[in-house]
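User: Quick sanity check before I run a bigger batch. Here is a single chain. Can you write out its predicted 3D structure?
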Amino acid sequence: MDFEHYYIGAYLIIAAGVVMIVIGFLGCCGAINENVCMLSTYFILLFTIFLLELAAAIYMLSVGFEYTNMDKFVYNGMYKMVCNYNNDAVAWVMDLLQLDVNAVDV
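Assistant: Done. Predicted structure follows.
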């Protein structure tokens, strides 16, 4: 499977988080100094980063599903687990999964 599109979106979100930390520190400095200009800049930069994170999440969800076959990946994984149900670890995971999604009555 090709997860390249997921990685691009994840890297964008991580980079935006690091930039937000730096901007947050500058916002704290502006609040301590009571500098209105610095706080206005802080708000504008923080809002811009928020929009970039939102765009990255939308990119990951829309473009990522278009180019990968996630449903086939999940189907194949579940099929292998059902075929190996005799294994105690696989049976335990399958039982937990079924209980979590209320697929069985216990």
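The chain is about 85% helix and 0% strand.

User: Great, the batch can go ahead then.
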